[in-house]
Amino acid sequence: VSQDKINVMISGAPASGKGTQCHLITNKVTYFLSLRQIPYSITYSQLNCYVTYSLTISSICIQYGLVHVAAGDLLRAEIATGSENGKRAKQYMEKGQLVPDEIVVMMVKDRLLQPDSKENGWLLDGYPRSLSQATKLKGFGFEPDIFLLLEVSEDVLVERVVGRRLDPVTGKIYHLKYSPPETEEIAARLTQRFDDTEEKVKLRLNTHHQNVESVLSLYNDITVKINGNVSKEEVFAQIDSALTSLVEQKAASGSMA
Ligand code: AP5
C-alpha cells in the first residue's frame, strides 16, 4: 500500500541538510506485519448476532513516493550540457547569488509538470528562494501541503560545506567526518562542488539571509520547523513524523488526491 500524493517543500540555509533529507524521504520504505480480522460467517440466534473472524497476516509497505525536484541539481545538470543558460547560471552560482528567474523558473515549472511529479507528488528542494519565485509558482497552480524549514546554526553550516563530497555514480551526498564513504573505491571517486569553499558559502549565506524572510512569510501557516543541528537520523525522525501526520490528516479528511 502506498499513500496518495502529498506536495512538500523543504527549505533551509546552504548545507543545512536539504539534499541529505530528500534522499532519506524518497528512499523510505517501511514494511510491517499486520494482523487483520476478516469476518467470514455470520450466524443469527433469536437474541444475539454472532460474527466469526478469520485472522490473516499481511505485509504493509509505507512509502511517500515523492519525486525529488532540486533547483540546484537542475542548474548543475544544465551547466553540464554546456548550454548558454548553463554558462550564465554558473557565473551567478560562483558568486553565491541567485540565478535569474528567466533561467530557473521555467526549468522548475517544466520538471513539476512531468507526469511522475503530477502523479506521485513532489518534494521541492531549494525552491522558491525569492518572493518572485514563490509568487510565480503559485500563479502556475503549484501549492505545497507542508513547508519544512531546517534550522541549523551558522558555524555548523560552514563545517558541513567544506567537508561535503558527492558520489558522481550514485548521486549520494557524503561528509568526510559525519557521513564518510563506505569503501575505498567510493572514496577514490568522490568529487567536490565548485561552490563548496568557506569563502563561497559565506556569499551563499548572505544571499539566503536577504531572501528567506519574504519566502517564509508566504508559507507561515503550513511551516514545520525542524532542528537540523542533530544527526541526520534524528533530523529525519522529525521530518518523518511531520509527513506521517500530514498523510494521516489528509486521509482522515478524505482529501487525498
Ligand atoms: P543548491 O545546490 O540548492 O545549494 P544550497 O541551497 O546552498 O544547499 P546545499 O545543496 O549546499 O546544501 P543542502 O542543504 O542540500 O545540504 P546537504 O544535504 O548537501 O544551490 C546552489 C546554487 O544554485 C545557489 O547558491 C544558487 O546560486 C543556485 N540556485 C539554487 N536554487 C536556486 C533558485 N531557486 N533560484 C536561483 N538560484 C538558485 O548537506 C551538506 C553536508 O552536510 C553534506 O556533506 C552532508 O553529508 C552533511 N550533513 C547533512 N545533514 C547532516 C547532519 N544532520 N549531521 C551531520 N552532517 C550532515
Automatic annotation (TrEMBL):
EC number, as in UniProt: 2.7.4.3
Keywords: Kinase, Nucleotide-binding, Transferase
Domain of life: Eukaryota
UniProt keyword annotation of Transferase present: yes
Enzyme class: transferase
MF-aspect GO terms: AMP kinase activity; nucleotide binding
Catalytic activity reported: AMP + ATP = 2 ADP
Assembly, per entry: Monomer.
Protein family membership: Belongs to the adenylate kinase family.
The name this protein goes by in its record: adenylate kinase
Species whose genome carries this gene: Flemingia macrophylla
Segment of the intact protein contained: 73 to 329 of 330
